[in-house]
Amino acid sequence: MRNCQEPFAAKRPLGERALIQRIRSRVGGKPFAGLTLGIGDDCALLGPRPGEQIAVTTDLSIAGRHFRLEWHPPEVVGHRTLARGLSDLAAMGARPLAAFLSLGLPRELTVPKGRQKVWVDRFFDGFGALARTYKTPLAGGDLAESPIVAADIVLVGAVPHGRALLRSGARAGDLLYVTGRLGGAAAGLTGLRKLAIRSENRPRPPTLSSKMRDLLAAHLNPQPRIAQGLWLQRRGLASAAIDLSDGISTDLAHLCEESEVAAEIDASVLPVHPNATLKQALHGGEDYELLFTASPKARIPSVIAGVTVSRIGRMTRRRADLPDVTIRTERGVEMLEPKGWEHFQ
Predict the structure, then answer these.
(1) CA 128 to CA 69: how far, in whole Å?
(2) CA–CA separation, 312 and 322 (whole Å)
(3) Number of structural domains, the chain?
(4) CATH, residue 331
(5) Do the strands 290-294 and 325-329 form a parallel or antiparallel pair, or are they unpaired?
(6) Quick check: 7 pLDDT over 60?
(7) Angstrom distances, CA of residue 143 to CA of 15, 40, 53, 150, 151
(8) Residues 140 and 184 grouped into a single domain
């Protein structure tokens, strides 16, 4: 068998068994805290600590819908695939235990082109770098030949029994907070689209300004707020939480629905990314920040684990004559329609 650490000797697709060994050597689920058996058997074995509950989430990424092969480098696709699931764990205040990945690939993405690295190897470079950062081993999954790239990630985490952050815990009178800055991912996607169009007839990628690099980073390399979610969970300060994957206008509506309350945002204190518009901050999505509520008596710091935290509004009682989510602007209080991302709409 070819050494899975070495480059391909022939320009041919890698078989499934060899590809599994290759993945195992790069980002395989070696024994780790909470994971006692990883890739190689029919099932992985997880061993959470006594008194913990298991948190499980799944997220699907499809070429042409969540990323584009001609725009997004393979490392970025791998990074974003894992980041989406980790962000869900962060919103629950769960510590990651392991990841499982079902990956569908066209055959040509397993074939080397000249001296270039194989697409699938670069995918796992990005995936593995983020997995190491958040101590989340790849414990198993499935591979299949597919007409398009499809990556279905399953994340397993653990949280102390009865301590998970839920969407349903907010109460009227709670204050509303958000981590980081909003709209950067949406602005980055717009910039990436323009950059791709301008680069169609160029033999080399254009030189990126520092502003463009910052703009693209928010879209290409989102950072899940695991540390911030754990901080809130361990101190019992958040009454409810959700991650901002679809845009605050949509995700806040979900939180209000589950908690049976209403919310008012103050546009003047919303932490809008310096390269984004207010519209992008409200509706853009894929920021993967944490939106959470807390009692007015809770002392929420302005920075948690190196990330800024902003108070952006408050929770109120539902009223039949008012929408669930409103925003206060210079024009007064207006309805904030959920115009973020929603499949099939």
Answers:
(1) 19
(2) 19
(3) 2
(4) 3.90.650.10
(5) unpaired
(6) no
(7) 10, 14, 29, 10, 10
(8) no
The answer to whether 61 touches 151, Cβ cutoff 8 Å, is yes
Domain co-membership, 125 together with 52:
yes
Identify the residue whose tokens are 């409810």. Answer: 240
The CATH code of the domain that includes 135 is: 3.30.1330.10
Give residues with Cβ within 8 angstroms of 41, minimum separation 6: none
CB 74 within 8 A of CB 58: no
In a domain, 66, yes or no: yes
Number of Cβ atoms within 10 Å of the Cβ of 320: 4
Q: What is the DSSP string of 264-306?
A: EEEGGG--B-TTS-HHHHHH------EEEEE-TTS---SEETT
Do 240 and 156 belong together in one domain?
A: no
Q: Nearest 5°: phi and psi at 40?
A: 135, -20
**191 contact partners, CB below 8 Å, separation of at least 6:** 212, 215, 216, 219, 275
> For position 47, what pLDDT does the model report?
75
What's the predicted TM-score (pTM) here?
0.85
Q: Which helix (H) or strand (E) holds 74?
A: helix 74-92
Report the C-alpha gap between 17 and 23 in whole angstroms: 10
Distance between CA 248 and CA 252 in Å, rounded? 5
Domain around 294: 175-188+219-335
Q: Worst-scoring range by mean pLDDT, 38-52, 99-113, 191-205, 232-246?
A: 191-205
* Per-residue pLDDT at 46 exceeds 60: yes
Q: How far apart are CA 39 and CA 2, in angstroms?
A: 19
Q: Round to whole Å and give the CA distance between 195 and 120.
A: 24
Nearest to 46, CA basis, from 156, 126, 175, 145: 156
Region 35-53: mean pLDDT is 74
For the stretch 139-184, pLDDT in tens is 889 999 999 999 999 999 999 989 999 999 999 999 999 999 999 9
One-letter amino acid for residue 1 of the chain: M
